């Protein structure tokens, strides 16, 4: 049984994972409402909230499941906000010491890498290894507020990064676009909601595609293009065309993600395609990648909504499924940790 702690940004989360049955419990305290007042995450406030809420969440774990049977503690040790990571790592160290169990540090991005497979494990834990092997090599796309990257997961479960973002991540571009449009925070879901009623071809925003050989992503130019477009419009025009603006802006993000993924699939034979990270909840993106996977004759494995954001379930699962995670005698935080 693994107890996992996630505190890399603005969500305090705990989870219990039993390899024989799957995730047996998840507990989370969201700070979205707090940071929404400021239009984005305030690191000092996020750290304070982790300090306030981690203890009460642990008490909820004790009340509902107890601590008996926990033989490993896993914690996100990077990447993320330094103060937030420190709260989680210090708590994990204390628990591992008190319970005399191994302490495991998990890379937050590796949690996203393996998150699309959590549902498959839950369906049939005893058959997981055999089914998992049949889906490798696997091409995965992680799309979040801080990261956008394509990677390969090979048969030995090693991760090779194929491409990443040169500047803004896709989720960051959506949040910044929403701020320019006056929609609030978090921006991605708000843009998606307005885009449902809009014309995605109303405005020709750039896709940041570049040469076909270059699979790296770039979204900074998209944000700038939106700003220039808004400067040409009156407040009344912006309000009137808000749905079209959102639909066109969102489609530019989706097209860039889908095109790079399609090219990666053409270069090598993969047995499955994965989608994870906070932006993976976007239904337009899911549908587009579903079509790409179908055309390639492979399944699309999309992380469940509750495992797309900052969550401890994926950290616990990665601590078990990732052979490159090892117990450590000591553990420090690594805010800039790469995949």
TrEMBL record:
Main location: cytoplasm
GO biological-process terms attached to the record: tRNA threonylcarbamoyladenosine modification
Catalytic activity: L-threonylcarbamoyladenylate + adenosine(37) in tRNA = N(6)-L-threonylcarbamoyladenosine(37) in tRNA + AMP + H(+)
Cofactor binding notes: Binds 1 Fe(2+) ion per subunit.
Compartments where located: Cytoplasm
Keyword set, alphabetical order: Acyltransferase, Cytoplasm, Iron, Metal-binding, Transferase, tRNA processing
Cofactor(s) it depends on: Fe(2+)
InterPro entries: ATPase_NBD (IPR043129), Gcp-like_dom (IPR000905), KAE1/TsaD (IPR017861), Peptidase_M22_CS (IPR017860), TsaD (IPR022450)
Domain Gcp-like: 23-317
Record GO terms (molecular function): iron ion binding; tRNA N(6)-L-threonylcarbamoyladenine synthase activity
Binding site for Fe cation: 108, 112, 310
Residues engaged in binding substrate: 142-146, 175, 188, 192, 282
EC number(s) given by UniProt: 2.3.1.234
PROSITE patterns xref list: GLYCOPROTEASE (PS01016)
GO CC terms, sorted: cytoplasm
Alphabetized HAMAP family for the sequence: TsaD
Its biological purpose: Required for the formation of a threonylcarbamoyl group on adenosine at position 37 (t(6)A37) in tRNAs that read codons beginning with adenine. Is involved in the transfer of the threonylcarbamoyl moiety of threonylcarbamoyl-AMP (TC-AMP) to the N6 group of A37, together with TsaE and TsaB. TsaD likely plays a direct catalytic role in this reaction.
Family to which this protein belongs: Belongs to the KAE1 / TsaD family.
Record-given protein name: tRNA N6-adenosine threonylcarbamoyltransferase
Organism: Rariglobus hedericola
